[in-house]
Amino acid sequence: MRVIVLAPIVTSPFALAVAELVRREPGVELAGIVVREHLNLARLRSELRRDGVRLVRKAWRKLVLGRAPSDAGDERGFHDVVRELAIGTRSLVEWARRHGVDCRKTPEHNHPEAIAFVRECRPDVVAFTGGGLVRKPLLEVSGRGVFNSHMGVLPRYRGMDVVEWPLLERREESVGLGVTLHFMDPGVDTGPVVAVRRVPIRRGDTMERLRTRFEPVMLELMLEGIRGLRDGRLEAAPQERSAGRQYFVLHPRLYERARARLAVVAAASSS
Amino acid sequence: MRRLLPRSLGAAVEDWLGRLERGVDEASQRREAGRWLRAAGSLAAPSPEAVPALERVRAAIAASLGLDPPSPQPDFAAPGPLEAAGAPSREDAPRALVLHLAALPCAVSAPDRGVDSAAPAWWPLAGGALAPEQTLALLADACLGATPRAGRARALQTLASALAPNRWFPREGLAPGAANLLRTFVADGEGALASYAAEVCERLLRHVEVQRERALRPRGEVAPDAGRLEQVRFTLALLDAAERWCDLRFLNAALKRSDLHHEQWVRRRARSRHDLLAGLHWAAALARQEELLRELAP
What we know:
The complex is a heterodimer of chains A (271) and B (298). Chain A has 271 residues and is α/β, with parallel strands linked by helices. Chain A has helices at 13-24, 41-51, 53-65, 69-72, 78-84, 92-99, 112-121, 136-140, 165-168, 207-230, 252-268; strands at residues 2-7, 29-36, 103-106, 125-128, 146-150, 157-159, 178-183, 193-198, 245-247. Chain A contains 11 helices and 9 strands. The termini of chain A are far apart. The relative contact order of chain A is 0.16. With 298 residues, chain B is mostly helical. Helix content of chain B is 65%, strand content 0%. Chain B has 12 helices and no strands. In chain B, helix 3 (50-64) crosses helix 4, helix 6 (132-144) packs across helix 7 (149-162) and helix 10 (224-245) packs parallel to helix 12. Chain B starts with 8 loop residues before the first helix and ends with a helix. The model of chain B is unreliable at 1-5 and 76-116 (pLDDT under 50). Chain A binds chain B through residues 49-50, 52-54, 56-57, 60, 64-65, 168-169, 245-254, 256-257, and chain B through 10, 13-14, 17-18, 20-23, 205-206, 209, 212-213, 248-249, 251-253, 255-256, 259, 293, 297.
């Protein structure tokens, strides 16, 4: 079975971990990697408009500080997985060169060059590890489809900040927090659902610790989806459009309330 | 000893980014709201009867934001009981008063570019389903609340039938009067009209969240100050939706829109009546936001 990985940036630890694990998986071939170019001004402007200072802060933490261990405590995240796998580089381009995998840099995933490359590779499935919406032309050349590990429980929580929104809406028990593996379609997180795995809140959790706890689950579900497809046992259930709502980036004042709610729930947690 | 050690550069940058991320300073927004409330004292009411309502709106918004009450207009007589003036009771302030405020500007701006000039813009949106004079009458009824409630429901039903939800936010820009019309749908819609209002509000939410500062652009023929007023009325429409359906997503969008208004024009001086109205609406939106934050996200 042939797999393509779509990566948001060259140094994405999620993409690196997926690529390495796919490479090691029997019966699966990593046919290629498509990574977005770092310096795309139009895209950076759009992301800055959408996420504002949060994007700058995220970039500062990831690219300048590296992951600050104190933020996530002892939670195991993507960086820890990359270290455990002894990948030996932080660059997808370097990793691809070492393992003889074709890696293309394009302005964005839906660019004609990216689509042409994916079409040439004839994948059975594409593993999306970040980088914006995937549009119809790319979906059409992606074999069975494009897997996405969404950080929210679908169909209820589609869109952005879906770790925080259930806390704000006090639905952390009734709906829960978790990761959903689904096939992407032209909508926002509306494609058929393959699997949902809940992520518990633990005593002493902060938002950083909690979000880090999602990371290995995203990776596990992605690999389970690939294995399921390889073994012919994959099932995907279409979503009812009306069963969920689209959520957007939280205003700082509501974000602080979500944080405060997490502190209360985490303090009451028995685990 | 620890106090003598300098903070690391990383921690200092983190602090600075954290402050930036928290966004517009709420105290500065309240100060601006106070300025607009004072400036709105020079608004000419459409009739002597409307003066008390306008004064009560200003006072209620100031009270809600914890500001000193603005000085009343010079010829404003001491208020009688609110109920006698036909305004909502004090317990409902500022929510009901803000709805009352929403009705005022239609009358205030009608001699300028209000309802009577909105009809041609709505005519193509309704797909030719209504005659121009019907559109005007329906808009007037819906916005000014001139007809009894049952009659207004029929007017709204006719408009809803002629105007599909996906035609409210066309690429060529919004028709003037759209915001107050949407607010009327949200406030008055029952049954199928409530579902229609919910669908339009969902489209409004996606529109403002995706388009951000490009959202809610008016049609080319609308003056910039009238366009700003319309935009802030849509912020009030988002707050109406948040309250009606207890949906924090709409409050979230309204908070962002208020910040955007603050960045784009709130700190400027008023140059026209539309500017004064826009400032007053923005102050009302701030008051409403604080109330809804307490109710929906304690």
